[in-house]
């Protein structure tokens, strides 16, 4: 089992995403997960074995490695990918819930239901509107937050995105300040910069998608307001009926109150 | 045979779960199984090779490692994942039994074999209790075996054949501790989800029962 299972889950969400969302998913899978699995894991594979300190003191290498790499780059990336993919589950759950409701209505024999069979419900693509819009937008918002947090964590933990060749360590039991050499620093720097760049692209895509969804929302609202203005007679009739009802209700309430007090 | 079997089992269980049960499956899958396979396994991969003692005495390192890590964290983690997913099999078996019975008698005995009512409700509640119990047992085991959820970077060992008290250094202690918290936090979340699901189901079906009796009395 590997990231393939995540691909299956997110692939399901893909159907209900916007075009920008589909591009984001492609970038995630090809330029992040695939690069992580196929290339980056091998570059960091021998990181502790080839981390060499200029001392024979047993334990010094372990302690210095732990001091400079509290959590390895590769593990941070894997965690980042898992966290960034998780909000899409919210959308998947919402879609599954909607499908379940429609199937229930279909089985009850609801005449409003416009589907011919259950297969059609299963294959249906939901439009991003109503409550699904809110779920989708929140999932993009959380994605952005997670990306930003992990990028900051990287920057903070490793003092930038460069992997130095040499680190000076004087943690106990190293007898003095000892030179420790990192394995493949240039290759690791290249991959770090690559992953950060792709993260930034994903952040930009998420921001663009958020703007697109908000623009669509406001346009739809103004369209609805425009449509309602064009049908004033119908609206006025409805309004006057509602006003009558309100008056009746308030009159009856007043009578009840008067009845109680007297 | 690999973790794919567990993944398929969890997907199968998902079909017969409540809403909270589905959230539980998602948490187990994303935050426990995926983190374990994609990330944690590699951290503990060379733990024995990288365990270093400040001595050249043959056998001392082996003995000290064995003393401080009777069962490795990663193995306990794997066992926990397997044992926690297994009670859901009870529900799957019960539904299969119901479907078999319907086939055997060639008539509709249940409103819907997968609906949680009657005997299946009891099975589902038992599976929830077992899952919660297993989670708590493993958390307590972790705590007792390793004196809390901390991993020290140095342990002092004086077991034969080590001649004196010897310093032994554990590899990647900080990273291991971070991922240990990654084990504990979703476990606690799963316990909370299981208990909520248990309360929700008991509450829902008590209300149903009470209403049924009330209707009968009225009639």
From TrEMBL, chain A:
MF annotations from Gene Ontology: gap junction channel activity
Record-level GO cellular component terms: connexin complex
Limits of the Connexin N-terminal domain: 42-75
Transmembrane feature ranges: 23-40, 77-97, 132-158, 191-214
Region: Disordered, residue numbers: 226-245
InterPro entries in the record: Connexin, Connexin_CCC, Connexin_CS, Connexin_N, Connexin_N_sf
Signal sequence range: none
Biased composition (Basic and acidic residues): 232-244
Keywords linked to the UniProt accession: Cell junction, Cell membrane, Gap junction, Hearing, Membrane, Transmembrane, Transmembrane helix
Membrane topology label: Multi-pass membrane protein
Primary subcellular site in the record, as a coarse category: other
Coiled-coil ranges per UniProt: none
Record domain Connexin cysteine-rich: where: 146-213
Superkingdom per UniProt: Eukaryota
UniProt record similarity statement: Belongs to the connexin family.
Function comment: One gap junction consists of a cluster of closely packed pairs of transmembrane channels, the connexons, through which materials of low MW diffuse from one cell to a neighboring cell.
Assembly notes: A connexon is composed of a hexamer of connexins.
Protein name (record): Gap junction protein
Organism: Dicrurus megarhynchus
From TrEMBL, chain B:
Listed Gene3D superfamilies: Gap junction channel protein cysteine-rich domain
Family under the similarity heading: Belongs to the connexin family.
SMART domains assigned: CNX, Connexin_CCC
Bilayer disposition of the protein: Multi-pass membrane protein
Main localization category: other
A GO term from the CC aspect: connexin complex
Gene Ontology BP annotations: cell-cell signaling
Entry's transmembrane regions: 21-39, 77-97, 118-143, 178-203
Full protein name: Gap junction protein
Localization per Swiss-Prot or TrEMBL: Cell junction, Gap junction; Cell membrane
Assembly notes: A connexon is composed of a hexamer of connexins.
Primary role: One gap junction consists of a cluster of closely packed pairs of transmembrane channels, the connexons, through which materials of low MW diffuse from one cell to a neighboring cell.
UniProt cross-references to PROSITE patterns, sorted A to Z: CONNEXINS_2 (PS00408)
Record keywords, A-Z: Cell junction, Cell membrane, Gap junction, Membrane, Transmembrane, Transmembrane helix
